[in-house]
Structures are given as C-alpha cells and as structure tokens.
Amino acid sequence: MRPFDEWLKPIALCLLVAMTCWFLSVATPLHWLSVRMTDGLLRSSPLPLSPDLLLIAIDDATLQALGRFPFDRRVYGQMLDRLRQAGAKVVAFDLLFLEPTPSDAKMAEAMKRFGKVVLGVGVAFHRTKEPTLLPERLLLPFAPFAHHLRLSDLLSAPTFVLPPRPLQEACAAVGFVFPFPDPDGVCRRFPQVLRWKNTRKVVPSLSLAAWALWAGKEKVKRVAPLLANDGSVWVTPPDVGGSVRFPTLSFVRVLRGDFHPDWVKGKVLLVGLMATGLTDRLPTPTNPIASGLEIHAAALNVFLQRQSVKVASELFQGVLLLAVGLIFGMVGVTRNPRRYLYAFAGTAAIAVSGSILLMHWTHFAIPPFPLLLTVWSCWTALTAWSLAEHRRAYEQLKAYIAYPALEELTSMPEQLQVGERREISVLFSDIRGFTRLAASLAPYEVVTLLGTYFTRMTEIVNLYGGTVNKFLGDGMMAIFGLGENQFDHAERAVTCACHMLEEVESLQKEWQRVTGEPLRVGIGVHSGIAVVGVIGSEQRKEFTALGATVNLAQRLEQLTKDLKANLVISEDTYERVADLVIAEPVSGVVIKGYEETPMTVYCVHGLTDEMRRLRSQFWVAAKP
Prior knowledge:
- The protein is of the alpha/beta class.
- It is built from 21 helices and 24 strands.
- The strands form 6 sheets. Strands 17, 18, 19, 20, 21, 22, 23 and 24 form an 8-stranded mixed sheet that branches.
- The model has no long low-confidence stretch (mean pLDDT 87).
C-alpha cells in the first residue's frame, strides 16, 4: 500500500486547486464570465407563464390613436371603468404619476370604483429636504417573511417619489418600480421587499403588491419561500425571439371595449409602456431588450406560479467544487494520466449535462463556469504534477538505470519500493585475464581502456532495450525484460551478446596496441524469475535483480573459460531462441552451487542468417 503522504499529495493539490477556482469565480473579474454563462443556462429553461396575468401595453397603436404621451389621466379612469365592467381583479400601473393635474380627481374616482389598484412609486437616490412619509396601510408587515428572511439582509428603502395625494389616497397599494440592475447593467435579481427605516415593516415591489391584492395580504406568507436571502427573485422574462410571450392587450383596445371580457376576468393586469422610443429597456438573463413592464411581469409570474428560479449560492458552489477536487484527488492517487483524462472528460460532461437537466427539471441553476474551470484546472494540475513526479523519478534513476527500463519504472514507483517478481534474462560479461594485464599498465591506461570498452558495450545493451545494472571491475551485468511488453527478453539478450562479441573485434586493434594481447570476452545468459527492485540502505540504494536466475547467469559466464567458448546460455534461454542461433549443446555440466543437478548448457557460435536479417531490419543497424 502506498504511504499515507503519497495519497495525501494529489488530494491536497486538487482541493487547493478547487478552492482557488472558487475564489477566482466569486472575487475576480472571472465572476462576470461565470454570471454570463449562468445567464445562458437560465435561457435554456424559462418558467411557464401564468394564465392569470395580462399586460395592458401603451404601444405604437395607442399613441397613434390618442396622440402625445403622457395622456390626460381621465383616460386611465375610462380604462379602469372598462376593466371593472369586464371583471378584472387587480390593475397595477408600471407608470409614475408624479405631478398633480386637474384630472387627478376623475382618475381617483375611477380607482375607488375599481377598488384594487396598485400605483408605482419612483425611487430617488439623492437626499431630499423632506423625508418621504408612506401611509401605514401601504406597507407590509415583515412577520410573514420572518421564517425565511432576516430583516438586516434586506436593502434599505431609499427616498420614494409618491403620486399626488388624491391618487395616493384612492389606490389600494403602492409598489416601487425600480428594478435594481447588477453592476453590469443586467437585471437578474429583482428585490421584492425593502426594509422601511427602523421599523418591522417592508415596502413591496409593484409585482408583490399586485399579487398581495390578487391573492389576499394574509397569503403573503405562502410566497416568502420563493424569495432569496436578500428578498429578491430571479427575473426571467421570455426571450424576445421566443415563441412564448406574455399575453398582451393594447391600451387603446381596452378604451374602445374591443376585447372579450374573459380575457381579463379575474386576472392581474399590468399597465405600462411598450411603445417605440418611450420604453426603458434593460437586459435580463433571458431577454436582452426586456421592457420594464416585462420585468415586472416576470416577477409577478413567479408569485402567480408559486415557482421560482433558484441559483446555487456561493457557499453551495464552494462545497460542490471541493467535492469535484476530492474526486480528482482520488483519481490522482492512481498516478495514471489516462485516468486523469477519463476523469476530465467524464466530469466535464456530467457538469454540463447535469446543470442543464437540473435546470430543466427543478429550475435550480448551478453555475457551470466554476465547475468547468475546476475540472480543467484539476486535470491540468494533476497532469503537471504527474509529469513533475515522473521527471523527479527519472532524474533520480537515470544515473544507474538505462533509458528503456527507466520509462517503465518511473511510471510505477511503488514497485521500486516493495519489489516484484518478474521473468527476465540476465547477461554477465567479463574480460578474460584483465586482472593480470591491469597490474602491468599505467592507471590512466586501465581507466581509458575500460571506459572505451564499457561505453561501446553499454550502447549495444541499450540498443536492444536492456539495462546495464552494474559494472563489476572489468565485468558487467545487464538485465532484459524490464521495459514495457518485453516478452522477447531472451531473444534480445542473446542477440545483444552476439552483437557485443562482434563489437569486440572492432576494439582489438587499439586493445592490442596498449596491452600487447588480444581482447577476449566471456558472456553468460540465463532466463528465469528474479526479484527486481530497489535494494540498499537509507544512505545508498541501487536498482538491481536478485535470485537464482542472476546467480546462474554469472556461473555461466565463469563457465566460458572451462568450455573455451565466448557465449554460453542456459537450457531455459535456448528453448526461447533455438531457431535464432547456431549453438552446440554440452550435457552433464556441473556448475558451482548446482552440483546436485548436472545441466545442459549451449555454446553459441553465432546467429542464423535469418536472424541476422531480422536483426538489421527490426531492431538495430548491426552487421548482417
């Protein structure tokens, strides 16, 4: 089992990356990119429209019929009378009646006859000399909201601009009409209640005030759960290019009585501007040019449907990102880059599809940008960490492990720590008589000769995918079968040995010039099971192979002197390369350490012609 700290590293890394992504998503300019992606998610599943809502639009046709806006207020009184006769239940004006006019009395009388009329009040963000005084009857108690909201979390009510006194006394309720857009100018969350000074009262929006009159103020408690912590709702009016729009009736048609009573009976009617040039339009998540009337209608639709869009809080997003980081951390424990890629693709697909489906089924929106940012960042961090670990292991091992085996070993460092049994082929070589020669040579000549010899032999071992494990004075030990999928390690070892003997001939001239004697080499090869791993103390370790396979290969190399052969291989190795070599069997050989079991060994005289061609074609550019 991998030590605990090895498990902890990738998990801690991914959790740190997840928290960094959360911070970037909520506290840097990337927040607005996240918000825009969430807007796109909200467009994918708008709320259904209530049949109890109708817009009365002061549109281009109305202006052509009635002339210049604003109209004489008696016109609104006539409209109210028409709607009262048709059975409309509530009328809310998304219009500001700021200055008194001579016709206020006529409109006030019509408002009293109708009964449930809501007037919009303006918001003044500058201080006025006289404080605004709202009649107690126009405020809502905070008590119905107390179980879901905290009064301190609500926006404080600014200064209001009220209608003239006759209209103010005649209306059943008032509501503020300013939608409080976000800093980027998009109206996403529309506050529905504002804290009124230092009281336990709140000022409703035009939409909430209209719904309270339609359903009854005693039922306000039912819609309190629809509000966010700051008392707002997400406004998602239908897209301007969509097939579903708020039902709308022209103002002038109402004045003329050109409508069926069933169109307005028992409904909430919002009256406002939609004429070209008169409408203040604001972008929303679902409609880039929504009118103020449509924004109020979207908020009122939330209450009528008893269904609202919810967007995951920043705290919820942080917890979710930590969960994603933990998943990637657990995948990182495997240290498998391919699994990192699978986790990246799978988690990204789940994040996108899950967000869309959750929005479609429950109208709960999880911003996709922080999720995708975390998924990509965790994958990138794990990949970079894996490469760094691979590089670190490579730097530690390359000094004593040849490249072909090093690539395999750095991808599985746990095997280096605990070792493993593996089928390999071991090659031992030795320069005959070198101990005697070294005594008669200068030290620099000994070092130079061995350096040249070992360099050439190591290059050949590497060509065949072997690993020079150690140098033993004038001898060397090489291992084959450590690389990935080296099932042909015996063929590689024997072919490499033949190539080494061929290379000896190219060194003869320089060797004889210095030593005065020919260079003679003995090589032994054996294939079998050995323990492979890192062996040593805390102060010094080395990668090597241990066991009977290694011992027998060394004994075969020593046997070359007695058999007067350059290359001797075991019977286990010969069975694998019988078709590739020209060899002579020697039976009944007694080997030191194996006296009880005489063995058959093979003296190899060379490669077959077919093997020479294959070697030059598929493995290395060797002499044919």
